[in-house]
Amino acid sequence: MMRKTIARAALLVILVWAGGACNSDRLTEINVNPNAPTSADGQFLLPNATQNAVQTILTGGQFRSHTGIWTGHLSQIQYPDEETGLVRPSTMENAWTGFYTGPLRDLVMVIRQGVEEDLPNYEAVGRIMKAWVFHHMTDYWGDLPYSEALTHEDSVNTTPVYDTQQSIYTDLLAELTAAAALLEPGGDGFVAGDLIYGNDFAAWRLFANSLRMRLAMRLSEVDAATAEAQFVAAYNAGGFASAADNAWLNYPGPPYENPMHENWLGRDDHAMSATMIDTLLSYNDPRLELFAEPAESDGVYRGQPNGYEQVVDPYTMVDISRIGNYWRENGAATPTLIMGYSEVLFLQAEAAHRGWIAGDPATLYVSAVTAAMNEYPNAPNTPTTGEINAYLAQPEVAYAGGAAGLDQIYLQKWIGLWMNGAEAWSHVRRTNVPYLTPGPDLITTSGEIPVRFSYPDSEQSLNAANLDAAVARQGGLTLEERLWWDAN
Questions:
Q1: pLDDT digits (tens, 9 = 90+) for 337-362
Q2: Were 119 and a residue from 114, 313, 468, 479 both cysteine, which residue would form a disulfide, CB within 3.0 to 4.6 Å?
């Protein structure tokens, strides 16, 4: 009897083992965490990528400091590293790594899902936003890993080749063209995941074409033929046609609030640049009361000259105008403008001046200035129609034509790019308008205002051969080495 019991038990063990062997995959399930998925839907990845990218490029503290100061919009009245041309290695490290492992990785996954699941709007929006991020990155650093970066999340390449900025721009223009063609206005969307256009894919097409115009114009001084051809094609395809097409990132409320307001709650780093304040004052610009607050000490609008380690004597911090409270004290819900109609009109005014497109540059110039005046329609102190007309009627503002007219387009565009330090910095580097005088405390090699960022230290450790080749190709590592398109 005992032998039969033992035999039955042995048979049961064998059967259980055999059953497990027939489904060996189940043996590893005990090591799988069901609450840690290995992939995510694009509707959840896109908002995270959008918010992270926009905050880093346009509203985050360090990058806003660099680009806002080096373009003459802002000044730094505490911890003035950016004023002196000092680039913190940690800032470059965090930004570089953050772009590749954060929004770019998320966007690649959105694109892949769009391709694999036949969701063309996923693929197209992912490609547009990826192009938007990469165009800023190459405008910061020049050559960088592009074609061999982010090939697959499961295949880590720690030594990707650095693509030239020229080749990156060529591909970005192609990507935007292809993405615009992919978009299906009636197709599947991201549910609530599209923070910019809420699944309006016709608007996404306008954004892609407008961004293509921006990138095409960037090449105007180094490859005029390509710049013209790309601009005309994008213009004919159709960009922003009114302010209703603007690309905004809105902030719905706590914990999602404008980072500039959050900075105001605990710090007081930034003030108005003397360059911006003096320009607004000299042209009787009605945007002065929107862009800036009067000095606390005497109610005067007064900016701080850039390139100084401290507030210039005889003034102290209470004598310097702060950024307008529409962005700071009252700015919790103030949206961030990613790209606006006024910029597109300024681009078209320049293109008409160059003879690339039909149209009167004077008319486009007036429309661009008017649109820039109305960029923030819900803000206090938004200029009235009468104020705008009076501003445009001033001899110094009225379009002069010729070389002077082009400089007017450039200057007004620089003003209109307020709060978009990244694009304003690129605009100043390409046009030299306005001409910015280096301050006395700049510690750069030549004493000039930086025109690029430094590469992160980790690249020298992990990808030295490719980094060294890129540096040699671009002429050196200093912050004064111009980018490929910066030829003016």
A1: 999 999 999 999 999 999 999 999 99
A2: 114
At 260 the pLDDT is: 87
Tokens encoding 46: 């896109």
Amino acid at 46: L
Q: Which range has the top average pLDDT, 12-26, 196-210, 258-272?
A: 196-210
* pLDDT tens per residue across span 65-121: 899 999 999 999 988 889 999 998 999 999 999 999 999 999 999 999 999 999 999
Around Cβ 40, how many Cβ atoms within 10 Å? 13
CA angle 224/227/233 to nearest 5° reads 140
Quote the radius of gyration of the chain (alpha carbons, Å).
Answer: 26
- Between CA 28 and CA 19 the distance in angstroms is 15
Task: Output phi, psi for 292, to 5 deg.
Answer: -135, 160
Q: What are the backbone angles phi and psi of residue 337, rounded to the nearest 5°?
A: -85, 115
